[in-house]
Amino acid sequence: MSDLVIHIRELTRAYEMGAETVQALRGVTLDIRRNEYVAIMGPSGSGKSTLMNLIGCLDTPTSGEYWLNGQEVSRMPDDALARVRNREIGFVFQTFNLLPRASARANVELPLVYGGVSSRLRKQRAEAALERVGLGDRMDHRPNELSGGQRQRVAIARALVNDPAILLADEPTGNLDSATSEEIMRVFATLHAQGQTVIMVTHEADIAAHSARTVVLRDGRIASDSPNRSGAAA
Amino acid sequence: MQIKDAIGEALETIRTQKLKSFFSLIGVLIGVTFLIAVVSIVQGMNVYMEDKFANKLVGLNTFQLRRMPNFNMGNISEETWREWARRPRINYAEARYVEGKLATPAIYSRFCSQNLPVTWNGKTAQGVDIWTADAAMFQIKNLDLEAGRVFTPQEARLGQAVAVIGWELGDKLFKETDPLGKSITVEGIPYRVVGRIAKQGSLFGISLDKFVVVPFDAPVHRVACNLGFMDELHIKTANVASMQVALTEVEELMRIQRRLKPGQENNFAMQTAEGALEGWKKISAILFTALPGLVAISLVVGGIVIMNIMLMAVAERTREIGIRKALGAKRRDILAQFIVESATLSTVGAGIGILAGIGLAFVVRATTPLPAAIAPWSVGLGVFLGVAVGMTAGVYPATRAARLDPIEALRQE
Question: Percent of chain A scored above 70 by pLDDT?
Answer without folding.
Answer: 97
